[in-house]
Amino acid sequence: MAVFSTNEFKAGLKVLLDNDPCSILENEYVKPGKGQAFNRVKLRNLLNGRVWERTFKSGDTLDGADVTESNMEYLYSDGEFWHFMKTDGSFEQIAADKNAVGDTINWLKEQEVYIVMVWNEAPISVTPPNFIELVVTQTDPGLRGDTATGGSKPATLSSGAIVKVPLFVEEGDILRVDTRSGEYVSRAKK
Amino acid sequence: MTRWQPTASLVALQARADLNRVIRHFFAQRGVLEVETSLLCAAAGTDPALEPLQALYATSPGAKAVCRFLQTSPEFAMKRLLAAGAGPIYQLCKAFRGGERGRRHNPEFTMLEWYRPGFSLTELMDEVEALLREALALPAAVAVARSSYAELFQRHLDIDPHRLPLADLRTLTLQRLFIAADALQTRADCLDLLYGHCIEPTLLEPMFIFDYPREQAALARVGLDAEGRMVARRFELVMRGMEIANGYDELCDAGEQAARFASDRRYRAARDLPDLQPDARLLAALEAGLPASAGVALGVDRLLMLRLGSQDIAEVLAFPFDVA
Which domains does chain A have, with CATH numbers? Predict the structure, then answer.
């Protein structure tokens, strides 16, 4: 695996730090006063999502992390693993465990395409599309005569996610939801 | 696509031209002589924190080339002019430093350096402040604070930076930031990191910091402060969390200068940094006699960043290193 020096650190570069794969978010060159040069680096730990701030002497190196991202279609879950298939025509399948799926478990829908990040051949994260359309499986009936203004209620979607929706939303409606904020966007055409 | 366009806006190019006018007018009014010295030098500074760039010079194509250094600052040449009796002088020029590239650094940058024979550090700080006020059109209500290095560390970290033992400095540094412990070899390493991480980013308003630790004397005199601590007679001007200028009560003693060259070279050897020969011409000029002077170097690109509110030095450079 390649080795990267602090002057090659740039946003998006994947490196190993304390044996964990990390993605570099920011790299700032600092040279206070007349002293040695340092690099103040922000990294996201790709296993747990935490942001680390570390300082390196300029010229220090880190090993690159063998991390790849690919578009994969969600197939099914067997209860222990969630199975995805590459959309590049290879039909290659991969099984992600609960840690890798993480919060995306709330946004899984068959045949939808996700970004699966793989490190050393094992999936470590699954990112949903920014917007996804899901069916309402349960919600209380809205108040008669209510309009789009004011008021909201919880609705359970086919993926299991619970989102706040306007009162006029009914069971069976298809909703467009922002997976980053978990917020209702609109009713989708049926 | 090959990027050919400048990274600086037309407004930034105009602001630079205007700032140069302000600077030249400022010194003309004060009777400080503008000088030019050579960018290509036979000897470079030995400062272990600075890496000079090299240029090859051949008398004819194919002839054996000799190495020249691009100056890391015009300090040595200007001191030779002072020793020759030039009086108060300033220079607006390019300086070059290897490896320095970041939001606030470009390997080639514009430096304003000036020397005031007979000035105290306080008088020179007054003059830097006057220039800063003109260059940035600072309202009179904006105060430019002055704090000793010790007061600053006392206030922010509750330590005496001149007296705290190295072991305690290491512990504190490791508490305050994540860094490999082996990066903390010397007191200066720890103090620089603490300053750079815990203090400098908080200094948004303009401030002079003076009386540095003696290990960071570089080319400044050392002396005792009011509390009897040995300190380097230096100051820095900081604003928006960024060093703008660096001034010295200049070292005039040839013997002490030679000893510092030797000490820098030992430090370089210990850390596998390239060896550099002392500048014999500077030493000869000091032997001949340098008038007691205060001198300061100011980063013109950074001053321009302040003037324009830029976050990245590339915004004030037509062609920064990556697209030069």
Answer: 3-63 (2.30.30.30), 67-127 (2.40.50.140), 131-188 (2.40.50.140)
